[in-house]
Amino acid sequence: MAVRFSLIHDLQDINPGQWNALAQDHPLVGHEYLLAMQQAGCAIADTGWAAHYLLMHRGSDLAAAMPLYLKSHSRGEYVFDMVWARAFAQHGLAYYPKLLGAVPFTPVPGPRLLAANHADRVALAREAVEVARGNELSSLHILFPSEADCQALREAGFLFRENVQFHWFNRNYRDLDEFLAGMSQPKRKKIRQDRKKAIEAGVTFRWLQGADIDEAAMDYFYRCYCRTYMEHGNAPYLNREFFRLLHVAMAPKLLLVLAEQEGTPIAAALNILGADRLYGRYWGCTRYIPGLHFETCYIQAIEFCICRGVAVFEGGAQGEHKLSRGMLPVQTWSAHWIRDERYAAAIADFLERETPAVSNYIDELHEHSPFKKNIDDAIPGPRPAGGG
């Protein structure tokens, strides 16, 4: 049956059920999440995220799809290529606009080539290259692709860049104490000290899901979210309307951890629940208490996963401090196609030197595992050796 490719700019033109089936019901690649980014005005042309969703039809059926954005900058990507952009500029070449296959402002690994089989993923990747080439764009970048995507992207001729995140793995713990018992004594002591400080300060926690999350709670969370960005000297990427749309469309998949002191909210962390994992996304506080950040963002999420039998908690991008909270280093990847062969060769050389350094860094992190040796050896999950 004939295959037909097309580009569209509005996700409302795509059937949500068909898109989500191809996305394997990953909540952060789902139609609802991406549409909220678009409708709230967060990921649109005016913010440097011009949507160009690549579709592959076989007959009348949507066989594959890909979230693509024409980018005029590199903000909100969490894979840093500004050095590449400067190198292009120094030689009088335009790096922007570039084509990006990613979920805006969301450094979460998952499917980017949304297809049911390897052949369709390869076809989609090659067509995306032709879109970039045909429009004389400098490059095409696929951020945080899944393992299946990486296999297809490698076959399509992409270069790969390695990075690291920190994920927690559930070993069928009965409760938080059993999890802590598997940790080395200094790490276990530190977590318990942080919890004790929160308890002594009169802090209590609530897990809000679905209908339990009201507008007042979301308003408070957004105040915290904005404050976190402002404290780092940045304006927040996402607006209140995005979280309103997310609340309407995805309420059952939201977990809001609310920290309170004498009945008054003082901190909040918003997580998104998938089929077998919890994604830590946003946090903030309005009152400083030692250890509150780690308890609200990480330990409460881990305890939730233990109570609900969730297999993995993804703690988000960056942050060696997550290692001491029971999260382990995990490889992540980005894939890159560069139109100019001279610069493709230079970047390939850069990656050839960078990748062993990143792999060695991940090895060193594993050597400083927070778990007892016999526990660490038994923990599942990606290890630093191997490719994407």
Note the topology.
Layout (H helix, E strand, L loop, with lengths): L2 E6 L7 H7 L8 H9 L9 E3 L1 E6 L2 E6 L1 E4 L10 H9 L7 E4 L12 E2 L2 H17 L4 E5 L3 H9 L3 E11 L6 H6 L3 H16 L2 E7 L5 H17 L8 H11 L3 E8 L2 E10 L3 E9 L6 H17 L3 E6 L10 E11 L2 H27 L5 H6 L10
Parallel strand pairs: 6-8, 13-14
Antiparallel strand pairs: 1-3, 2-5, 3-4, 4-7, 5-6, 8-15, 9-14, 9-15, 10-11, 11-12, 12-13
InterPro entries: Acyl_CoA_acyltransferase, FemAB-like
Protein name: GNAT family N-acetyltransferase
Pfam families: FemAB_like
How would you sum up this structure, described in words?
This is GNAT family N-acetyltransferase. InterPro entries: Acyl_CoA_acyltransferase (IPR016181), FemAB-like (IPR007434). It holds the Pfam family FemAB_like. The protein has about 400 residues and is an alpha+beta fold. Strand 11 and strand 12 form a beta hairpin. The C terminus is likely disordered.
